[in-house]
Amino acid sequence: MRSNDQGKKISIVQITETLLSRYQNEFLENRRFIVGIDGLGGAGKTTVAKELQHALELSNHEAFIVHLDDHIVETYKRYGTGNDEWFEYYFLQWDIELIEAELFKKLHESDPITLPFYHSPTDTVTTKPLSISSIAIIVIEGVFLQRREWRRYIDFMIYIDCPYEIRAERVLDRDSYLGDNQARLDKYKRRYWLAEDYYVNEVDPRGSADYIYRVIK
After folding, report:
1. Helix/strand/coil for 158
2. Domain boundaries, the chain
């Protein structure tokens, strides 16, 4: 495992160099190379994914980003199920088996991929194909990415190690749809942070990553 305590721009350069070294020297499979960007809520996964895509393209490699939050299930499947809210978020937010079968397995088999896309305004899901080049490096970003069902499919895993204070400020500022600040805080305490605690304790995502991207306060 390699880690980095430098500034953001240097981190992306180092991540790209390490990733491409693995890709060029160790990756022998006849399929797409899969990169994961994991981290808890508010860590900055989407931003790092975009910066990594840009860095790979500057290195003359095509990169395609998959955002796991695009593929959650409808509200009725993940709220009011009779389970604790943290359980709903961790185990029911995504159709875990479907994502494994339709995304990860098909990436490994180089098969055509169709995935459910969630449309928030209508709370509906529509299945659409992904148009991915056969030579593209696949960058998948999302929370809980190293869960047992998915981890083995990913060739190079990046974990964004971001301090709790920074993450909490980010998510409480951005998630205004949850209500006022107190309502947001209560929601995170009941649902999101408990699920993240479960993930950290059960999976040890930091210890299972290939590269630690540290966010400095």
Report:
1. strand
2. 2-214
